[in-house]
Structure formats: C-alpha cells, structure tokens
Design goal:
The protein has one domain: 2-Layer Sandwich (Alpha-Beta Plaits), CATH 3.30.70.20. It has four helices and six strands; from the N terminus they run E-E-E-H-E-H-H-E-H-E. Strand 1 and strand 2 form a beta hairpin. The protein is globular, with a radius of gyration of 15 Å. The protein binds iron/sulfur cluster (SF4).
Length: 114
C-alpha cells in the first residue's frame, strides 16, 4: 500500500485512501482466523478482500475431524467447503472480511513474531 491518507467513506462505512483501497494498515501484523464451526463458504471474504487473502475450498480432513456435531452438519450442508486463509502475509487489517461474513466466522488475530 502507498500509505495515502484516508479520504472517502466506503459503502460499509470504512475509510478509503486515494488509491481506492479501503485497506491502509501495515501488512503482516494481523491475519484472519476462521471459526470452522461457523464458516458456511458464502464467499463474502473472498469478494471483499482487496489482497486475495482467502479462497474457498474443500475442508481439510483434520479440520473436518475437529468440527463439532453442529459444525459437521453445517459443513455437509455446504458441500464441505469453507474459506481458507492462503495469503496471511497480505492482510492489511481493514476488517472488510470481518464485516462481510454473515456468520461472524472471522476474527483478526496478531500474527506470531517471526
Ligand atoms: S482484514 Fe480481511 S479484507 Fe482486509 S486485508 Fe485482511 S483479510 Fe483482506
């Protein structure tokens, strides 16, 4: 990002910079964490993230095994697909994904120090 000052309101009420991106934070400090028992693969996170942090794909077997009974039923009902964080280094902590998820399945968490 170019670090341009925020100048506009986005449709969701977040500020945008002059480059048109609502993300102006420093990359690499926070990254999204997905609650596997909540995600329904609706894809809002994929659509709103300006940095391609997410993708929707089949649940990893280990993630599926760790689901609650309710989570397994939900996963089955949605084709066993969920959102995955594939580029955590690119997260700029704008929170667009957090606001876009209708299941409240995304939190931003500090990344471990390298
Ligand atoms: S907060 Fe969400 S939408 Fe914004 S850059 Fe990070 S992963 Fe993408």
């Amino acid at each position: 990002m170019n670090g341009a000052p925020f100048t506009q309101k986005s449709p969701r009420g977040l500020m945008q910079n002059d480059a048109g991106s609502p993300c102006n934070g420093q990359a690499g400090r926070l990254a999204p964490v997905i609650d596997r028992n909540r995600c329904e693969a609706k894809g809002g996170c994929v659509q709103v993230c300006p940095f391609g942090v997410f993708e929707i794909r089949l649940l990893e077997p280990s993630d599926r095994t760790a689901l609650s009974l309710r989570g397994r039923i939900k996963a089955w009902a949605h084709g066993n697909r969920q959102a995955y964080v594939v580029r955590p280094d690119e997260c700029h902590a704008c929170r667009l994904c957090v606001e876009a998820c209708p299941e409240a399945a995304i939190r931003l968490m500090p990344r471990p120090a390298a």
